[in-house]
Amino acid sequence: MHDPAIRTSGLVKAFGDTRAVDGLDLEVPTGAVYGVLGPNGAGKTTAVRMLATLIRPDSGEATVFGHDVVREADAVRSRVSLTGQYASVDEEMTGAENLILLARLLGHRKPAAKDRAAQLLEAFGLTEAADRQVKTYSGGMRRRLDIAASILNTPDLLFLDEPTTGLDPRSRNQVWDIIRIVVAHGTTVLLTTQYLEEADRLAGRIAVIDHGKVIAEGTPGELKSSVGSGSVHVRLRDPATRPEAERLLAQALDAPVYLESDPVALTARIGGDGREEAAAEQASRALGRLAAAGIVVDDFSLGQPSLDEVFLALTDHPATQEAAA
Amino acid sequence: MSTTTETGATYAPAAEALATVLAPGVRPPRPSAWSASVTFGWRAMLKIKHVPEQLFDVTAFPIMMTLMFTYLFGGALAGSPTEYLQFLLPGIMVTSVVMITMYTGVEVNKDIEKGVFDRFRTLPIWRPSVMIGYLLGDMLRYTMASTVILLIGLILGFRPQGGLGGALAGIALLLAFSFAFSWVWTMFGLLLRSEKSVMGVSMLVLFPLTFLSNVYVDPATMPGWLQLFVNLNPITRLVAAVRSLMAGTPDTGELVWVFGAIVVLIAVFGTLTMRLYNRK
Question: Would the N or C end of chain A have less CB density within 10 A of its end CB?
Answer without folding.
Answer: N
